[in-house]
Specification:
homodimer; Arc Repressor Mutant, subunit A; Aspartate Aminotransferase, domain 2; 3 domains; eight-stranded mixed β-sheet; 16 strands; 40% helix
Chain lengths: 483, 483
């Protein structure tokens, strides 16, 4: 594993970022209090020996982060910021030499995976919907009807690119995220993971460097590393999302061959990049000719009014490879995913051919049929509503049962809450203690290749809130307090 | 592509093989005529200065090859052997600078693949059973029953190693090939191809050298190369199979990191290594600590009385990784395969986890159920009988319709005939001409990385013999004659 050698060193081009960072940290530490007026742009420029433009940009930066607000004809003021909001998480923080160091990242991940399938467990570790939220009966019906409608009972090989009906509906759904996609632009895969693997293999070779978010879904690390690729983590956080400046610098330093990001409801942060930032990201990568693998697996799980746009919708050069699946929305066990690989379609088709000839016929046909009958749209409306409610309910319970110094993310979609505990708490220890109470959570350690998140945990709100969950969260709160 | 620089040398340990070879070549050249009685074992032993046991083994060898037959209480006789049997095919033959050179191997393979799925085509190119030979209705029933029996309707993730019922029956079936396998020794995969890919990745890294048979299934070349591996082709032919002496030398010269062979009914040759040779192969590789990836996908398609043993059955050190699937026997489109990876199980489980978390639940459950109800054994008895009949019927038709100088393999199982045409004939040209008559065949060029097989074609007998096939083979025969 190559560790990034980047430090956030002063960079004359990004002076305003430093100024904003410094001011931001003063605001967070309440050196400048909520409601206080800040110096005018002119005064700041004078005071810091910077240009008016740089001073202005620093304030805009703070505004974007939600730390200050511009009041018309009056100036900039520190906004109300709840004590529980996140500190800016910077990569390359101090490596904490805690207990958890004794267990390797791989071993931790393997442990967490093992407990995924333990039946008697309160599984707060799985970023998926509870079975009760999935339309079992209607999907079974689609499976049977699809097999009956197939001229060969789905017993024959499916074509390499995938089931036609399924591709047609994936293309249609692309409208909702701003895409203009034809069925032939799509290649189906064995879940989203396989799509990511093929995309990575299409644009890299072993030894190459790939940029991913930190923190990110732990499965990604293993997958990227198992392909012989090196990882550079680009800092992202629950309030500002991906650090594009850092990314641009990293591209220069590390010869990054591909980026693999989750721009919509990233896991574990639940953060959705704004349309503007998505566009900037696509343009930035286009400028440097770096392909973007856009993991859009949570894209349909929005709590707002509309489906967020994707980076793919801003892609003019075919450099964005969108990957998704129905594993988080409909049927994890069906392993039906896809990618829209832009100009790398030929490579993806070849890789699929070399790996497995084609994907399973019955499962693709069943999901295609589920779309075709309109069952999917109906199901998704219900699922989104249920998840949003669950998100709020879990957040509230955590506020009630967890100690006061705990900070919780406010996701705009997806399945998970990202929770920062007191610095002294070792999340992996907490994870192990919780297991003895038959509660599985995901310790922060497994979301990064370094040890920045030893005091974080991820909790899934995929299961409807009930007494068992309530009891589990109370127990967790008690365990955290005891530390 | 690294080219091998090896040649074949005599080996004292295999005296009986040499004797059998010499006798066999006399039989083929009609020095000893059909129906003639051979010297008794005792006479042969005396005549050649070899032990009785070696003489006996030489005759058994010739019997296995179908060149002689033992008549009870009478002795050994030369069997009826059509003049069309194979000459020994040696690798490193002259490179033929034909027309087909203009099209790259990759392009040829891509073309052949494309025509696999063309519906109106007489598909003599596909090494799979015709749909009519597959138990569609009974398999649909298993799918529905399996989903009904599953506590979660097969909607949830299957465990990483795979469906329990399926693994149980794979383990049970291992008895028939001499294996002593537990369900927990097995990892299910997305077809046999994915099993091969995981096995290759488990024991090699990009740049390593892998030994495969030449000629072999063209999908293997692409798969091996797409993993950044180099190929050494070990010569094999339709009468003697894999050249073990050549292999041993190749291991020394090339630092071979893994072998990927099809010891039972290799594709395209249809050759089955004898038990003795399989054991030798395993011991040879164990001596050099080289893992063997045993592609056993055709193992169940035997025409003889019993299921041939596998190399895996001789494996004492866990170095043999057996891969198979139901794609050739039951349901190509289900993509249900498995591997029995010996001591590399942990690596395989990890690779599967990194690639796709798990395999599809409904398809695994359906195949498991199909085994559980005994439907599989019944189906296989019928399928084997049908295939053996088709094999003989196709062979006879080729003898009738093709020119006299054409030579045909005599497979002991599997789906394909390997046919040698006149040296002047360019098989890829023939392939293209046949396409204009809506007949697809596999040209020999795609079965090797060099140009040894420009005058070979592979024809599948997976479809029942009927008027369409008859007409197709007549047309092919006419095209061949015109060259």
């Amino acid at each position: 594993m190559e560790k990034s050698t980047l430090t956030t060193i002063p960079d004359e081009d990004f002076l305003y970022v430093q100024i904003a960072d410094r001011l931001g940290s003063q605001i967070r530490q309440q050196v400048i209090k909520t409601g206080e007026k800040l110096p005018s742009v002119r005064a700041l420029s004078h005071e810091q020996g910077i240009s008016l433009s740089t001073a202005y940009k620093a304030y805009v930066q703070l505004e974007i982060k939600g730390l200050i607000e511009a009041r018309p004809k009056s100036g900039y003021y520190v906004r109300y910021t709840p004590a529980r909001s996140f500190d800016k998480i910077k990569p390359k923080g101090e490596q904490q030499e805690g207990e958890s160091k004794k267990v390797s990242l791989d071993e931790m991940i393997a442990m967490v995976y093992r407990n995924f399938s333990a039946e008697s467990m309160l599984r707060l570790s799985v970023a998926s919907p509870a079975l009760s939220l999935l339309p079992q009966a209607r999907l079974n019906k689609s499976m049977m009807e699809a097999i009956r409608l197939s001229p060969n009972s789905c017993i024959s090989y499916e074509s390499v690119q995938g089931n036609e009906t399924l591709k047609k509906h994936i293309a249609r759904h692309a409208f909702s995220w701003g895409g203009n996609i034809l069925p032939d632009d799509i290649v189906t895969t064995q879940g989203c993971m396989e799509a990511l693997v093929f995309c990575l293999r299409a644009v890299t070779k072993p030894g190459d460097v790939v940029a991913i978010e930190g923190p990110t879904y732990f499965g990604i690390f293993n997958t990227v590393q198992s392909l012989g690729l090196k990882i550079v983590e680009i800092p992202t956080d629950a309030t500002d999302g991906l650090d594009l400046n850092y990314l641009e610098k990293a591209i220069g330093v590390h010869k990054i061959k591909a980026c693999l990001f989750v721009p919509t409801f990233s896991n574990p942060l639940g953060y959705c990049m704004t349309n503007e930032r998505k566009k900037q990201l696509v343009e930035l990568l286009a400028k440097h000719e770096v392909p973007l693998i856009e993991d859009d697996i949570y894209g349909e799980m929005y709590f707002g009014k509309t489906r967020p746009r994707t980076c793919k919708s801003y892609d003019k050069q075919g450099l964005v490879m969108l990957c998704s699946s129905v594993s988080k929305t409909l049927a994890p066990g069906y392993r039906v995913g896809w990618c829209i690989p832009g100009k790398f379609k030929r490579e993806i088709v070849n890789l699929k051919l070399m790996h497995s000839l084609s994907s399973a016929s019955p499962t693709q046909a069943a999901i295609g049929h589920f779309f075709e009958t309109g069952r999917y749209d109906l199901h998704m409306r219900n699922l989104r509503k249920a998840l949003h409610t669950q998100c709020l309910r879990y957040t509230q319970a955590i506020a009630e049962h967890f100690p006061d110094d705990v900070k919780v993310s406010r996701p705009q979609g997806g399945y998970v809450l990202w929770i920062e505990l007191d610095k002294k708490i070792d999340a992996f220890e907490l994870y192990k203690q919780a297991l003895t109470y038959k509660i599985s959570i995901s310790p922060g350690q497994i979301f990064s290749t370094d040890s920045r998140f030893t005091n974080f945990i991820r909790i899934s709100f995929g299961a409807p809130y009930n007494d068992e969950v309530d009891k589990g969260l109370k127990t967790l709160g008690r365990l955290i307090s005891k530390f």
